[in-house]
Amino acid sequence: MSQGDLTDAKWRVLKDLLPIEPENRRRGRPPEQNRSIINGILWRLRCGAPWRDVSPKYGSWNTIYRRFRRWSEAGVWETVGVTLAEIIGQWPLQHR
């Protein structure tokens, strides 16, 4: 795990907020690799680098980009943001 990658605890919360990819998909990365794809997306957003510069350790830059775009168009990021804000809002103040 690299600095900035999702911890196991963060991944447990986030993975259930992501859409389930259809099982009959023949192309692209399987859904169980979403954690690596999310780490690639987060790296790119933190660094501001071009998509093509995402490290191959996260997978194909094109796969990461396409998953990001598909989820953006489907409103996944808005749902994730609202849900995470609700979860954090329920935490005691000392944990925020």
TrEMBL record:
Pfam families: DUF4096. Coiled coil: none annotated. It comes from the Bacteria. Transmembrane segments: none annotated. Residues 6-80 form the Insertion element IS402-like domain. This is Transposase. It comes from Sphingobium lignivorans.
